[in-house]
Structures are given as structure tokens and as C-alpha cells.
């Protein structure tokens, strides 16, 4: 059973509005849409806030990935 994946790749700060993305994803999950996954790639001053929000609200299928640097 494959999940539809939402992907956000960006520096994690308030201007990028990742919290809004997570809240919208949370609404989809709570409405019964279960075959979805949210992947957030990036780092920044908001990352801890975002991770804490996901943990406190027990939102499943949200993955945080560190960005890879290209040399």
C-alpha cells in the first residue's frame, strides 16, 4: 500500500510557513485520509518548534530529513 508523499525542501524559519503545512497535513489525517506522508527536508531555527508540534499533537507519517550538502 503506497502512500502519497508531500515534500517540502526549504530552510526552516517562520517565513517558509512549514507550521501551516504541518497543520494542513494534520487536518487531512484527522479527516480520515490515511495514505499520505509529509517529508520536510531542511534545517533552521524553526526545526525544533516543528518537531515539537508534531510530537505533542502525535501526528503520524511526518518525517524530518537533514539536507545533504553537495561538494
Please explain how this structure is put together.
32% of the residues lie in helices and 23% in strands. It has helices spanning 18-30, 47-56; strands spanning 4-9, 36-41, 62-65. It is of the alpha/beta class and 71 residues long. The chain has a three-stranded parallel sheet, covered by helices on one side. The longest helix has 13 residues, at 18-30.
Which helices and strands, and how do they pair?
Elements (H helix, E strand, L loop, with lengths): L3 E6 L8 H13 L5 E6 L5 H10 L5 E4 L6
Parallel strand pairs: 1-2, 2-3
Query: What is the overall number of helices?
Result: 2
**Proportion of beta-strand residues:** 15-25%
* Poorly predicted parts: none
Residue-averaged pLDDT: 95
Q: Summarize the biggest pleated sheet.
A: 3 strands, parallel
Q: What percentage of residues falls in helices of 4 or more residues?
A: 25-40%
Overall geometry comes to globular
Report the structural category.
Answer: alpha/beta
Number of strands: 3
Q: What's the arrangement of strands in the largest beta sheet?
A: 1-2-3
Distance between the termini: 36 Å
What multimeric state do the chains show? single chain
Report Rg.
Answer: 12 Å
The SSE order reads EHEHE
